[in-house]
Amino acid sequence: MPDHQITTNRIKQVKHQLLCLLCMFLFANTCMTAQDANLQADSLKNLLHSQQGKERYRIYQQLDSAYIQLDDFDTRMTNFNEWVEYAHSQKDIEQESNARMVRMAAYTNANRLKDTKTPTWDEDLAFWREHELWDKYASVNVTYLQNLLLVGKMDEALNVAQEQYEFFKKKDLNYGIGAMAHIIGTIYYYQERTEECIDFLRESVQRLKKEKTSVQILEGYRTLSLILAIGGHTEEAEKWLNEWREVLEANFKDNVGAWFNYNINAAYVHMHMGDYGKAEEYIRKCEQMSPQLGDAVLSKYLTYSAWSQLYQLQKDYPNAIKALDSTRVYVENSAVTLEGYLRERAELAWTGGLHDISSEAWRELYFHNDSIQKTKIAAQVDELRTQYEVDKFKAEKKRNRNYFLFALGGCILLFLLLGGTVYYNRMITKKNRGLYRQIKAQDRLAEELEQMRRHYEALSLSQPPTLVETEEINDKTVPLLPGNQQQRELVARLHEYLLRDQNFTKIDINRESLLSALSTNKNALTEAVKAVTGKKPMEYIREMQLEEARRMLDKHPELTVEAVALDCGFNTAHTFYRLFRKQYDISPAEYRKMAGTLEV
């Protein structure tokens, strides 16, 4: 592997760790115990809604610090959302923008991005576009592009960066152009498009120099100077290195982390320029600065790595391996970094002719990777088992839910059926009561009319009624029976015959027996009954049978319906049921039930 490529890979490996460490340095002086953070958070929440304006914004910031100490990401996001909503309600664009920026940074630092974008990504970008906050808009796009690079989506990152580059160029937005040029240059470096990489990085640095507080320019200086040195452009590399130093002295004079980054990068630049003495000076400066950087874990790791690289370029392989071994304690807990360390140690020892050390390193690397593979397999098995249990639980939950819904549906259906049945029975009972009362009322009316009719017939047979009697009859509104005198007499004889010995209830009664008993013919009888009653003879008899049956249902509750049917001259109970319902619109059983419960 070429020396410059080893150096570049080492820098890329620690880039993310350096950013995390700098964040830790930023909060190092504000650490609290979990108990203190809880107490402070509770106190601030109680105070929050009673405050307005700047004081309320200050409380939101303090709550965020407390939630960081409590490692409560979800509550932290809730706090950010309330912060954004309050600033929006106050139409405070600056505060709303700051809250959105910090919320987005929190997602990135917490590694909660599953698809390189935050949940509020589109909403946040729309806000910055609407208010033309182009520097913020460019910054969040840089974060997005860096996330794409971290997950290996280089082509997608390049396409987005080029689109944003053209967008900012059309609007002539200096910071946006410089930021996108830096991203494009970095991607070209990874793609080994060196000349294009250098051109974009030059443009990036030239533009970002105008942005006095831009931290991104420091990364531009670092990348540009190192790439130029690796490519043999030593004079230009030194030029950018000196300019980097001037920017630090002007804007970042007291930033120890920024100066450490400059010195370690200057050491690598001078290594590739062949000035090993100058490189050693810068490494020693890093050693002196390391204690000032908190726990100095990452700074020591970078310093030992630089010593190892310097010794390697000087062909001093034993010291190179010794310096590299000093980094192991800082990478022991990171599987990926430890693998890189073992691989580099094996290759370095082999290049230096230290074959025993190389073989030992390769062997350790083999067992290390084997252990990782076994761990991965075990983790996958555990994940599958967990997924199986989760799926099983979900299936059981779904099945139980379906059972519950089925049972609930059945209960509801039964309830509706029961309610419908009760309602139907109540309506039928109500109807039957009405019919029963109506029938009994008709009975009384029919009885009164019958008495009046008999009285009238008796008078008409003996002698014509007097004027007074006629007036009395008219007052009672008694109509004359239809038909002529002879027909009325024949019907009266028929009626008398049927009532005698209750002949109408005999099952064998028929037309011939009637003709014989009344000494008349078929036509005369039929015409007389039809004229007087409006019915045929057998219909007239059926009506008398039904009236008798109804009377017996009223007076003789001890008899069954079938017995009543036979006693009243019906061949079968079915015929009786059918004719009774047709006549009275109620069944015999329902009529008897009403007779037992009602008194009319």
UniProtKB/TrEMBL annotation:
Transmembrane region(s)? 403-424
Q: Keyword Transmembrane helix: yes or no?
A: yes
Coiled-coil-forming residues are: 432-462
Specify the signal sequence span. 1-28
Name any one GO molecular function. Answer: sequence-specific DNA binding
Keywords attached to this Swiss-Prot or TrEMBL record, sorted alphabetically, are: Coiled coil, DNA-binding, Membrane, Signal, Transcription, Transcription regulation, Transmembrane, Transmembrane helix
What InterPro entries has UniProt attached to this entry? Homeodomain-like_sf, HTH_AraC, HTH_AraC-typ_CS, TPR-like_helical_dom_sf, TPR_rpt
Pfam families per record: HTH_18, TPR_8
Check the record and name the SMART domains matching this protein: HTH_ARAC
Domain HTH araC/xylS-type span(s) in chain numbering? 488-594
Return the protein name.
AraC family transcriptional regulator
- Give the species: Parabacteroides acidifaciens
| Lineage start | Bacteria, Pseudomonadati, Bacteroidota, Bacteroidia, Bacteroidales
